[in-house]
Structure formats: structure tokens, C-alpha cells
Amino acid sequence: MNTYILYKEAITISSIKITVIKKSFDEDLANMYLTDGVGAGPCPIFEVGNQYIIGDEFEAPSGFCTWAWQDIFYVVHTLRNGGSFDPWINRKGTQVVCCSDAIRPICFLIERI
Question: Could you state, in order of their start, the residue ranges of all structural domains in the chain?
């Protein structure tokens, strides 16, 4: 955790932990819309339990899906800079989000640490 002076106010920048908590695959949608149908299979990049730490570098972790990073970036940025998503989330400093792949979505738990 680092503290920076911005506009004469101290801002604390926190580290973030991203955990893959769910991996889904909709076979019906895959058959209707994907070129390879169900042969495309679930997302090949993530597995449930994968964890990533975002520290001072504030960039996508190595090997992280570019599309998923773009989808979750606003949450990472908000939590990293001290923001919160309460009252919608019952655990302060956390949020659950997913990537925008409707056929093979990945759900992430994002936590300020």
C-alpha cells in the first residue's frame, strides 16, 4: 500500500487480489452462435482458484485475458483507490464481476488487500 499526494490530499493506493471463483459454459448458446459450437469448449485461459495480485505496477497480470482485464478494470481501479461498492456488496473492499463473454463467462472476486 502506497500513499500519494494528489491535489493536496493523501490518496492511499492498495494492492488488489483477483480470484477466479466460477467458470461457466453455455452449450446451447455455443451451438447457436460459435463457429466451433460446443467444440470451442469453456474459456481456456482461466481455472477456478487462479489468483492474481495487482500491486504498484497496475497492469494486467502476465497471461491474463485482455478482454477480461478490460471488463474488470473499473472495479480494480475503484477498489485500488479506496472506493467501495456498498451497500450492494456485504463485504467492504470487495466486488464480484464477470467478463463479458456471454457463452464462456468467468466470474472474479476482486478484493482490496
Answer: 14-112
* Alpha-carbon distances, residue 17 vs 30, 37, 45, 89 (angstroms): 31, 33, 18, 16
Q: List Cβ neighbours of 62 (8 Å cut-off, separation of 6 or more).
A: none
The pLDDT tens digits of the residues spanning 22-79 come to: 999 999 999 999 999 999 999 999 999 999 999 887 889 999 999 999 999 999 999 9
If residue 3 lies in a helix (H) or strand (E), which one and from where to where? strand 2-6
Cα 101 to chain centroid distance, Å, stands at 13
Least confident stretch, 6-10, 94-98, 102-106: 6-10
Amino acid at 87: P
**With b meaning 16 or more CB within 10 Å and e meaning fewer, what string describes 19-57?**
ebeebeebeeebeeebeeeeebebbebbeeebebebeee
